Each structure stands twice: as structure tokens, then as C-alpha cells.
Amino acid sequence: MALLVQKFGGTSVGSIERIEAVAERVIQARQRGHQVVVVVSAMAGETNRLLGLAKQIDAVPTQRELDVLLSTGEQVTIALLAMALNKRGYQATSLTGEQLGIRTDTVFNNATITEVETEVVTELLERDHIVVVAGFQGRDSQNNITTLGRGGSDTTAVAIAGALAADECQIFTDVDGVYTTDPRLVSEAARLSTIHFDDMTAMARHGAKVLQLQSVEYAEQHQVPLRVLSSFAEGEGTLVDFSTVSSHGAAGVAVKGRQALYRVAQPLEKVEQQLGLLGVDAWCYGDSQQATYPATYIVAADDELARLNVILEKTELTQPSVAILTLVGEGIEGDSTQVAASLTEKGMRVYQQKSTARCVSLLINGQHLQLAVEHIHKKFVVEPESLDNRPLLAVS
Amino acid sequence: MALLVQKFGGTSVGSIERIEAVAERVIQARQRGHQVVVVVSAMAGETNRLLGLAKQIDAVPTQRELDVLLSTGEQVTIALLAMALNKRGYQATSLTGEQLGIRTDTVFNNATITEVETEVVTELLERDHIVVVAGFQGRDSQNNITTLGRGGSDTTAVAIAGALAADECQIFTDVDGVYTTDPRLVSEAARLSTIHFDDMTAMARHGAKVLQLQSVEYAEQHQVPLRVLSSFAEGEGTLVDFSTVSSHGAAGVAVKGRQALYRVAQPLEKVEQQLGLLGVDAWCYGDSQQATYPATYIVAADDELARLNVILEKTELTQPSVAILTLVGEGIEGDSTQVAASLTEKGMRVYQQKSTARCVSLLINGQHLQLAVEHIHKKFVVEPESLDNRPLLAVS
């Protein structure tokens, strides 16, 4: 018997039919003898509906009250899923963030979990109940309702799994696992059966959307094995844990498309500091052509010009379509020259390259995106013998 | 400066525009220097929408989970109203039943308030906040979400007013006060400026819908003056308190239409006991024609035959349309013969009559309803000199 925390997102609970399908899925795990805690999001569309009501009253609604409003979305889902489980003869009890005891700081709309109480949920599990928990929400020390911001339900699931020392935290999503690269771009992309936390963190940080960065980091920190599964299809999915890497190549290629290159006549340090304050995640590098009057290039989403200009006056768009490819794998950072060269050899320009732990990132022309990902993926993930200067890792 | 508790029902907060109008109404009271606690219901239609979702899953949804679901309706309203007040420059804080500290028993879907904590709301009022509270909901001793059943938001408002020793509990509704009888039936019906708690209780018990019986009883018990006001129009409304009656006649005529007469071949005591178990509120009387084989007549809503037959087999419908008129006023119970006679003189048959404290109830043919109410209302409320055997009460 294992203790599983299963998380289903908004699309997975987007209609009554899908909530019933989730109930069946949960019951499968129960029938295999497992204890189950289910974490759910608001039904797809519900958060936007509520936000629409708020915006009719105030373009910038009070943050505290927005959390009171939005947290009802998950509360509706937990009630409906618990009903669906009860209807099928299974004892199930829903808990709001407050009822379970999810404590957060007071950053409304983007709170961080500070503590997860285990008493209520443990007592229910001991009485053989399936526990259905509202994701995305908690309470601060003053008993104000808070919400966690993007990917909040994943974070809730991982935090509960950590607090309960669960055997696995299963994230059900619309894909059937973590892929070596975006399968919509590269048909050769393959599902990984396992991936190391450090590689998953790197993939998430550099554009892979299957898991939220924060929840992967939290899971690693609390040593909670994560499994990514499809809500709609059977399968083993991808296990994210600390196992030895099972491939001798790189783990995968993360992609950030829809980026643009901006330029501002200010020194790099100042630009990085300002962007940090604005919360913009951007790759910046100095313009080496301008020794006397320092200037900085900024790679950011291709619709960020207006926002950049708020704090960095006279920012200019210099390239409307660029993309960042990041090859992720243990020790790969030593091969950046070789990785970049593999594209230039094919006539694709690499504007900039950067190595960080387990990562080589390349800034390229957006029009070359698909060709470049296909090539890097084939050469370093599928046929990694080309990485001739690296020791081969053991194949499990 | 007075402390007011204002309650707005589902129709009053049924759209964003109406929520904005409620905000303006609340601000009026605030501008007059009053402290205000606002209690709101779910937006009109929302409870039915949620119930519809639940019924798609289970025709008889788990009662606990139904309360988790339905309580989101009021939570949406409090957030939106607090936003609307904030937007207008007023400090306002929303509180769910749990956050305020509304304690109830564990009768899901029909809970009773056992305690109202005052600490949180008092602290907010002292900081000059308008407090916006979710009606209809509370928590039991195990921290389960409960809802209060019909008229629950009125009860919440009255309970909070009682706990805070508020100066007035103002119930905003779609009519502008308590009328001497149903104005849709009788054009002569007049708004009362004041009515005694005991008369209001009798009116509510016998069919007046403007206030829920439980909340009137609760207000009387906790000595909370109630005021019924229109959400949509200015005016003084009707004050319900312990003042001397301001009219020398009866207070009014309560009406229960859409009733039917049923008959079952069982003794009166047994029938009353069984109906009590089913929670059916019905007027019962023995069939005096049947000395040997006792039978009982039951007056109940005209669509109750199926439900009656569940516990009282072979109940028969004997009269598909009857109505109950109840004349309410201090000492009126001594005049039942005179009241009944006033109808029979006009050729209207009185099937049965009954006197209880401050009440004379008459069972009549449903087709005579309007004529009978008009006549009784004119004779005993508008021109009460006809009550010649009663001492006249002081006119205020």
C-alpha cells in the first residue's frame, strides 16, 4: 500500500463528465490498495469567469478580495469530485486549503506555502477516506484567504506530498509524460520514463511547460518523487526523482519560442537589476560593439516592449523573432562550443551562447527554431555518441 | 453613530450593476456616520446553477459536500461587494462565515447557529472598515462547512446583530416594508410603519413571506429591532420591535393560498405525529362525521399528495383548492366567531376556524380567496370599529 497524492488540473476537471472520469481514475488507485489524496484546480474557464466579474467592478480589483473570489473555483471542484466519489460508494471528504491547514505568507495572488498541517488529512486517511483538496489556496497567519499564483495547484500537491511523506506525487496533465523536447516541434521527441530532478528543473526553467519550476524545486527539496501522467490515457508517464540517468546522452532540449531581441543604451548590471525589480525573466548580455557608451541586449517575450519601456526608457526592438534552445544534461555545460558549432556548421547563426549547470543555451533566429531543435535533438539526445569528449554515463 | 447590520438578498445582488447599487446604499449609511456590517446572499440564480451541477452528478448529493458547494455562492458576492466598496474609496473587508466565526450545529443544509464570535468583526469596525459577511453559512464544531437552510441570510444578519448588540438589523428586500396584507391581492393593503414582534411572528407563521419566521423569532429573543426596507427605493420601511401597536385595529391578514384539503382514515393524533416526523407544516382536524372510524382532514400545499402518501397511505385529495386566512392582532383570538360570521354573512363558506394567540385562522374555498381577504382586511384592519366587543388600544 502506497500513499499517493494525485493532482488534476483545470482541463482534467473541466466538465461534469471529466470530473466523473477523474473519480474513476482515483478509484483505480484506491482499488490497488493505495491511500489517495486528490488535489484539484478550478474547472477550466471558471477562474476567467470570476476574474471577468471582478474586472467589471474594478480594472485593478483589491488583491485580498480577488483571492476570496478566485478561491471559490477550487471549492466548487472539490465538492463535485467528492460527490462523484461518494456516489460510487467510496468515502470521500473534501477540504478547502483552510480546512486542511495550508498556511502561506500574505502575498495575495502569489502566496508561498509556509506550512502544511497534517492532522486533519491523516485522520481522514486512517478512516479510509479519499481526501479531496482544493489546490492553489491557503490562509495567512491572520486567516486571510490567499492564492498561490501560477501553477499553484501543482505546488499544493507537492507540498502536501512532502508534509505527508507520500510515496509519489502524481501530476495528471494533458500530455502523457515529460518528453525529450516539444513533440509539437519534433516528431522524434520521445517520452522519458525517468528524469533526474536537476534535469527537470533545468528543462522547466528553460521553457518546458509540463511542470511548473517552483513545484519541481519544492519536490526536489522535500525529496518527493513526482510522476507526470496523462489524465486521458493509461500509461506509466515519467517519474522525476534522484535515480541515475538512464540515458548516455543529454536529457532533452528545452525551447523558448516567441522571444524578441531588445536593446537599451544602459549598462548590463543596471538593466539586470531593473528587470529583477519588475519580475521579468530575461536573458541579458552586453553589446560588445559599444565600448564607450555601454548598451545591453535583452531577450524577452515578443510582446514585452511596452512593459520594458516602463522601467527602461528608450528600449528598442532590434529583432522581432528569436528563440532560445537549451540542451539539458549532466556535464553538458562543458560542450557549449561543440553544440553551437553544430548549428553554425549547418548555416544557422548563433547570436549568443551561454553555459550554466547542466545547460547549454543558444540564442538563434526564430525562423530557424524547428530546424535547430530537430538537429540538436538528433545529435545530442538521440545519437549522443557525437559527444565524444564526455565520459559515457552508465546505462541502467 | 449607530451600529447597523444590513442584509441584502439574492435579487438585490443579482448582477454587477445591483452589487454596485448595494455599495452605494451601504455608503449612504456610512456617510451618515454609522458603522455598518453588510450580510449578503448568493447572486440570484447562482445557488440554482450550483445545485444543477451537483444534480448532474447525483440526484441526491452528499449533504456535507452540497454545503461545501453552495457556500461558494455567498463567497463570490462578498468579494465583489468589498471590491465595489474599495473602488469607491471605502475600507471594506469581506468575511466568510468561518472567518467571522459563525458556529452552527452539524445539520448539513439546514444548520442552526449556535454562536457568533465577535472579535474579528469588532476589530474591523474599530478600524473603520465596512464588514461584508457571507450569509447562509457557518462551521460546525468539526470545522465542516454548513449552510442554514431557507432564509439563512436573514438569520445570519439577525444573529450577528444580536451578538454585536447592533442598534438595528435592516433587511433589504424587493418590497418596501411589511404590509397589512398581500398588496398583490388587496389594493387597500397599506405599509405598516411599525409592527410588534408578536404580530410579525404570527404573520410570518401564517403565510407572510416578507420575513422568515426563524429570523423574526431569533430577533425577538435577542431583542434586535428589525427594519424591512426596499433595496430599490428610498423609504423608512417597517420597524419590527416591541413598541406599542400604533393601530387600534388588527395588524393585518396573512394569507396561505395554493392549499388543498386531504383526508385520511386515521385518527388526528396519529396523523399529526406522522406529519411532524416528515416536517410537513399542516393544519389538521378530525372528521366529525366519522365517530366510529376516525378520519382526519389535512390542509397542506396543493402539490403534497405524493409526499403525504409516503407516510400516510391512502390519503385522498378531497378539495383541490382551499386557502387559509389569518387575521393577526392583539386579543383578536377572542373574536373568531365574529370574524367567521363576517364571511358567512357574505355567502362564503368557512370550512373550519381556529384561534391561537393573536390569531384567528379561517379555512375557505380557494376561489373566494381575494374576496374574503378584501372583506376581512377592510372590516377588521382598515375599519376596525366593527370590533365592538374589544377595548380600543391607544393610538400612538
From TrEMBL, chains A, B:
Pfam families: AA_kinase. It catalyses: L-aspartate + ATP = 4-phospho-L-aspartate + ADP. GO terms for molecular function: aspartate kinase activity. Pathway: Amino-acid biosynthesis; L-threonine biosynthesis; L-threonine from L-aspartate: step 1/5; Amino-acid biosynthesis; L-methionine biosynthesis via de novo pathway; L-homoserine from L-aspartate: step 1/3; Amino-acid biosynthesis; L-lysine biosynthesis via DAP pathway; (S)-tetrahydrodipicolinate from L-aspartate: step 1/4. Residues 3-230 form the Aspartate/glutamate/uridylate kinase domain. The keyword Kinase applies. It is an enzyme of class 2 (transferase). PROSITE patterns: ASPARTOKINASE (PS00324). Keywords: Amino-acid biosynthesis, ATP-binding, Kinase, Lysine biosynthesis, Nucleotide-binding, Transferase. Its EC number is 2.7.2.4. PANTHER family: ASPARTATE KINASE (PTHR21499), ASPARTOKINASE (PTHR21499:SF3). Belongs to the aspartokinase family. NCBIfam families: asp_kinases, PRK06635.1-4. This is Aspartokinase. It comes from Photobacterium pectinilyticum.
